[in-house]
Amino acid sequence: MKTYLVGGAIRDKLLGLVPKERDWVVVGSSPEEMKSKGYKQVGKDFPVFLHPKSGEEYALARTERKSGHGYTGFEFDTSSDVTIEEDLERRDLTINAIAQDEDGTLIDPFGGQEDIKDKKLRHVSDAFSEDPLRVLRLARFKVRFEDFEIAPETITKVAEIVDSSELEHLTGERIWLEMFKSDNPWSFREELKKLGADKVLNISQKEKNNVSLHPNLSNKLQMISCFIYEEVSNISDFCSRLKAPNEFRDLAMLLNQSIARIHEYEPIEGQHDNLLDIVKKLDLRKKDRIDNLFEMYLHNDTVAKVNFFRSLIEKLNKFKLDKGDYKKSNDQIKEIIENSHREIAIHHIKEHLNN
């Protein structure tokens, strides 16, 4: 039984980066032996085990053979005679196909170190074209290592995958995971376009409403929600297909429903009801979601408008009912809140126009 550190941890160390996690491959063992040593099995498709102390993942060395469509269409061999070189050969890119043994010696049968030096993203073997998920992984690594170039022969392999229609067999969950794991989902989408594989997102162009959104957003929630809003005609269907978390769907829906009205609104006396209707649809209780919306809309030309809306929302949130109001009926309380909000909006517009 021999243990090897593999993949990203080796790659990042060679690049002078701090590895985010460590993955291990075990050669010459079996599920029975691993469990006898206290490892907890977690893998279903192939044996993966958690270390009893560190909790890190240890996978039995394996080979794989294409047996169906998509990411899951493979048969695996995890017998004890599978070598580390055979395990590395099934990996996607040469920079990810380097191992380190217990003595610190690097095992690099496919020239990963040289490709790191030359800043190349190159597939390991012809098996690359058997797994459509590797197109998405390639795009993700190109985004992360933007100064790397994709080898021409690897681009050819991508074209083979695209032409084979294998991308259509990827599950929404796998597509979402690769997009979310990308350092920049916007750039990830652009790389898929360059590779001719953007159809995997099933994005259909729709008519723009001339609203300019911030191109340099600060978090993945904003980035993904923004491009969903910009180009997907049915946001709910897109999010359902990719099993996107509700927070992404909700922010994209909020953008779709509100940003054009915010963009078009101009503070004019008598336009307080329209203003309150816009703000009401934002849902004052969800501060983080509103902050995300305004950050996406915030750029040099919209600072004044964003400040106008944020200031009004802050005033509305500060409004409190008097103690005696709570004794009144629900309809009376609702009328008090609506009248008070209307007075706040009227005053807010006047204050803005006077300044």
Description:
The protein has helices spanning 8-14, 31-36, 84-89, 112-118, 133-144, 152-164, 172-181, 185-194, 220-231, 235-241, 246-264, 272-282, 287-297, 303-318, 330-354, and strands at residues 2-6, 23-27, 40-41, 48-50, 57-60, 63-66, 74-77, 99-100, 106-107, 120-121, 149-150. The protein is an alpha+beta fold and 355 residues long. Among the domains are: 1-118, Beta Polymerase, domain 2 (2-Layer Sandwich), CATH 3.30.460; 254-354, no CATH class. The strands form three sheets. The protein has a seven-stranded mixed beta sheet. Helix 5 (133-144) crosses helix 8, helix 9 packs across helix 13 (287-297) and helix 12 (272-282) crosses helix 15 (330-354). The radius of gyration is 27 Å and the shape is elongated. The N and C termini lie far apart (77 Å). The mean pLDDT is 91.
Key terms:
355 residues; alpha+beta; Beta Polymerase, domain 2; 7-stranded mixed sheet; two-stranded antiparallel ribbon; 48% helix; elongated
